[in-house]
Write a sequence for this structure.
């Protein structure tokens, strides 16, 4: 028996995005409701002529509903199992689930895997979950049980890290911790390289899995180069660069991150003095570099998480890339990224274009980069393509 769900009717014309299978409904699209739902309650969506559109979870804020399906079905364990199994099947086809060289990957990528508001990263036997939806968070015990059922013996524990990701206005008090099993942060492998990952205290779920393929590409360009890894965090790009580089400097404002970057460099290249970690603000560091480097990685945290600060973010990307293009040696390579969801690929490219034009140097694009296939982009939800990158050749 299907539970009674709050009925939401949308304003005329505001149903068009749902006919295009976009999984978000914004608060301004709502015409009326049976009653105001509580955070995380199931709702049914109808157009202004009372035609059914979708089912989902209600939340306060700009995104009012995250759509779970476009057919009128229960949002329950059966739906969760179906989506998790489909997500795992894709990772199997990507050769990520039984790969001796790589045992870290994203298992569930929110809207890209049909579970809007849920991230699950797999770290060599530990699944780290982050919920952005109270509706799904309320089912976290069921989802943890399903992860064990579907992944089997390869999964030892589930750690939830949703304390900072759930809506602040929600009447809940999430606490990070193990939902099943126990354990300490450990070591994972990516393309044979080893990394210490701290999912308890680290940023996001502990490691930026989304740069895996871009790190591999960087390795191909690092031969005999002097490499500067800005916003280096735990040194992912630095480790790959050390395969062939003459020196690698990792810069981050966090002393804890730089310490871990040094440990990861030593874990893969013990006793190798080509690597040095530097605790310093990235912009200040770039002011004083001169033309010491001929490969620079710019992978800053999201400069914009909301549209109302988009202009400032674009100015930040312009200023950062301007300084790097000014400073890099002739014939140098720049890997530059934006992970801001609200910054479009075109806007990011324009910011880099303006930066290059202001230097007067000749700059060519060698690659246009994105996230790896275990971070799939829902074709109906362009916002799920959040990672943008360019590889530049600067004469």
């Amino acid at each position: 028996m299907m539970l009674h769900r709050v009925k939401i009717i949308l304003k005329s014309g505001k149903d068009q995005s749902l006919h295009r299978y976009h999984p978000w409904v914004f608060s301004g699209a709502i015409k009326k409701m049976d009653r105001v739902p509580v955070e995380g309650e199931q709702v049914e969506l109808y157009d202004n002529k009372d035609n059914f559109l979708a089912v989902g979870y209600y939340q306060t804020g700009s995104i009012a509903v995250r759509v779970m399906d476009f057919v009128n079905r229960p949002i329950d364990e059966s739906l969760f199992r179906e989506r998790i199994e489909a997500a795992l099947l894709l990772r199997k086809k990507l050769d990520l689930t039984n790969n001796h060289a790589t045992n870290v990957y994203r298992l569930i990528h929110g809207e890209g895997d049909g579970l809007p508001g849920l991230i699950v990263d797999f770290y060599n036997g530990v699944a780290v979950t982050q919920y952005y939806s109270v509706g799904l968070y309320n089912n976290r015990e069921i989802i943890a049980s399903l992860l064990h059922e579907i992944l089997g013996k390869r999964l030892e524990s589930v750690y939830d890290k949703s304390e900072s990701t759930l809506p602040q206005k929600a009447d809940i008090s999430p606490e990070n911790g193990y939902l099943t099993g126990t354990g300490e942060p450990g070591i994972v492998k990516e393309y044979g390289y080893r990394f210490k990952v701290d999912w308890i205290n680290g940023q996001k779920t502990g490691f930026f899995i989304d740069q895996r393929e871009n790190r591999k590409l960087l390795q191909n360009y690092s031969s005999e180069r002097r490499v500067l890894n800005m916003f280096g965090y735990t040194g992912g790009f630095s480790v790959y660069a050390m395969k062939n580089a003459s020196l690698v400097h990792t810069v981050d404002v966090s002393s804890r991150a730089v310490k871990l970057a040094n440990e990861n460099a030593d874990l893969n290249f013990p006793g190798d003095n080509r690597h040095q970690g530097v605790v310093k603000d990235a912009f200040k560091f770039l002011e004083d570099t001169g033309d010491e480097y001929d490969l620079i990685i710019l992978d800053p945290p999201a400069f914009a998480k909301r549209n109302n600060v988009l202009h400032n973010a674009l100015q930040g990307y312009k200023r950062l890339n301007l300084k790097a293009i000014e400073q890099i040696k002739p014939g140098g390579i720049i890997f530059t990224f934006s992970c801001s969801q609200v910054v479009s690929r075109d806007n990011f490219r324009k910011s880099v274009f303006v930066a290059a034009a202001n230097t007067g140097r000749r700059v060519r694009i060698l690659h246009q980069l994105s996230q790896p296939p275990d971070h799939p982009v829902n074709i109906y939800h362009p916002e799920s393509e959040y990672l943008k990158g360019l590889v530049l050749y600067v004469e």
The domain at 6-69 is CATH 2.30.130.10 (Archaeosine Trna-guanine Transglycosylase; Chain: A, domain 4).
